[in-house]
Amino acid sequence: MTLEQELSQAIRDVPDFPKKGIVFKDITTLLQNPAAFGKAVDALYRRYKNEKIDAVVCVEARGFIFGAVLAYKLKAGLVLVRKKGKLPAKTHSVTYSLEYGSDTLEVHRDALSRGGRVLIVDDVLATGGTISAVCRMLKKFKAKICGVAFLIELEFLHGRKKLKQYPVFSLLRY
Ligand code: AMP
């Protein structure tokens, strides 16, 4: 069995969640499976181990899981992007539109150093709205975005188009 097949089998499809017509890629079953979780992290690590990453930026909430283990393995710092109002010190923020309404994400102003090499990590690339907003927010730091990595890419939503300027990598594509 290939790595893709093994990881794919460990992910559960939940139809009509959070609303009718959406097939939700549930990674909790992969996280519960030590072999699959380990292989997913190892594959992401292999892709970036020679990229001299200084900081891994990850997005609340499922992005934190992969971001934290990757930062540990890459010996990089971990930077949390959180929903508005959760971070205690001074922040930069970005507001982006959702299907209905908008959302705001924040990051601490002292989270990244100028010129630092950054890897952004999240679980799923869907429309790309979230991560392209994160990239916009990170411009304030003048850091170098060396990669944007996902466990899963939903290719039919063309999220990659919104991230054209950056090297995008995904382990599984649907
Ligand atoms: P995006 O449309 O790329 O901004 O997606 C935003 C976030 O929604 C991603 O980080 C995912 O965690 C989540 N998401 C979107 N679509 C799905 C899906 N079909 N299954 C699981 N998570 C999803």
Structural features, described:
The chain has one domain (50-173): Rossmann fold (3-Layer(aba) Sandwich). It has helices spanning 3-10, 28-31, 34-48, 62-74, 129-138; strands spanning 12-15, 23-26, 55-59, 77-83, 91-97, 102-108, 117-125, 144-153, 168-173. Helix content is 29%, strand content 34%. Strands 5-6-4-3-7-8-9 form a seven-stranded mixed sheet, sandwiched between helices. It is globular, with a radius of gyration of 16 Å. It contains five helices and nine strands; from the N terminus they run H-E-E-H-H-E-H-E-E-E-E-H-E-E. It is α/β, with parallel strands linked by helices. Helix 3 crosses helix 4. Strand 5 and strand 6 (102-108) form a beta hairpin. The chain binds adenosine monophosphate (AMP). Residues 22-25, 62, 122-130, 154, 159 line the site of adenosine monophosphate (AMP).
Task: Reconstruct the topology from this structure.
Layout: H1 3-10, E1 12-15, E2 23-26, H2 28-31, H3 34-48, E3 55-59, H4 62-74, E4 77-83, E5 91-97, E6 102-108, E7 117-125, H5 129-138, E8 144-153, E9 168-173
Parallel strand pairs: 3-4, 3-7, 7-8, 8-9
Antiparallel strand pairs: 1-2, 4-6, 5-6
Helix pairs in contact: 1-3, 3-4
Q: What are the salient characteristics of this protein?
A:
29% helix; binds adenosine monophosphate; Rossmann fold; two-stranded antiparallel ribbon; alpha/beta; 174 residues
